[in-house]
Design a protein that fits this description.
17% strand, three-stranded antiparallel sheet, 3 helices, alpha+beta
Amino acid sequence: MVKIYYDNASLLVDLAAKTGTYESVQRRPFIYQTNVLHRNNLKGWKWVSDIFGTLLIFLTISGWFMLKGRYGVIGRGKWFIAAGIVPPVAAFILFELVHK
């Protein structure tokens, strides 16, 4: 077996079986950009994500008070708020119990 290396690629040749395998490495457009954002290499991305998070918090709080009556915060809204708050609080408590 012989392995030949190229720039961003390799060729594996099996001389006995007379077969070969060519492998190349390329950037996948959407996955690469998502990974760059995830690694936080971009300088302005922190500000963009902070502003977006602040806007989402404002949207959530304003949505609580837009509906009145039985569909508002006092009606079924309290159950939606509880459903949104309970999972992160439970995860936090479990995380603290496991990592003591």
